Amino acid sequence: MPEKRIQNASIEASVPLRTSMHVTGTAFLALFSIVGFALYGLPFFYDFMVRDLGWTRAQVTSGNAYSKLLVGPVFGFIAGWIVDRFGPRRLMMIGIVMAGGALAGLGQISSLAFFYIFYLFNALGYVCGGPLPNQVLLSRWFGRSRGKAMGIAYIGIGIGGAIVPLLADWLTQSLGWRSALTVLGVLMVAIALPLAWTVRENPPGWHKPSGGDVATIGPVFRRAAFYLLAVGSMCSIGAVGGTMQNLKLFLSLDQKLPQASIAQVLSLVLISSIAGRLLMGWLADRFPKKRIMLLIYTIVACAIPLLFYASSNAALYLFALVFGIGLGGDYMIIPLMAAELFGVRVLGRLMGVILTADGVAEALSPMAVALLRDTTGSYRTGFVVLIVLAAVGALAVSLLPGPRREQGT
Fold first, then answer.
1. How many CB atoms lie within 10 A of CB 180?
2. Global confidence as pTM
3. How confident is the model at residue 41 (pLDDT cuts 50, 70, 90)?
């Protein structure tokens, strides 16, 4: 392993600055579009679908649920194999086109059948062009500064997510919600595809690891820490996803807030997430990651109750600030904690399992909360469920052991 690190460092040192910026910019814009625009932009249009198409809250959130349940467990592992076998660039381009086309198509739907079809393509676009190929691309090009490059790229998610509510609101007022979705889909492709088309996916001298370098992952599944980490991350991701996917519906249909005000709240959440990502990353480099993960999960659990007081602007904006910090740290801390517990040599396969499990939680939680709102007439019960989920996640993390001290991890 030391010689591998030396080789990665020497490869990175020989890469021109312009090329490094091209690679980092490619990942930044792909995540900006596919995660920032699509993942955080689509919920902005849910209330329009409820009003204009007569669908329930459970139905408009079910597209995200069913597509992730179908695509994640099945295609996630296949996509990982394709990236290792053929490289990330071509898969990324396919994902960008599918995700952008899905948004454009969702702007034209009038039936649930086509709603599910385009959401399926959106999920495929996320798997093919989202975090997975971008992590591989950055890992191939960067050695010592890999964490810095990842951090810059992932800020694209926060910036894209902060921009999209304001842009979607302006487009909706100007063109209507259907055309606004179509324009966002076209913009996604126009923003992300050019750099992905021209990026070099492998640096000079890069080669795949030999079979002897592959560590066995079997012992990891025999450790209680794996299941505690999986349960903790599933619960917290479920709480975050359930909140974000229902927030626009709650603020628009239940709280009757103007669209412009809602856009400001949603944008503030994502702006705060950028600060959360930077803050928690800085803390994780200086303090035990278990403590930082527990802090993040506690922040999420404490932020959601503020939605009970959403009629107060002060409480609502305080929620956006606090929840955004938790949102920014939530996804980032999981691989850091996994690496500390189990080592980096099994991290790729381990995260494939954990992220698939997290995807199931992120799919089911929003639909369950929306269904509770449809059946009870209030979001109160659903919010209580989300608070409990976040608290269980924090409890599971508190039971994790300290970091491994074994050589080579």
1. 24
2. 0.74
3. confident
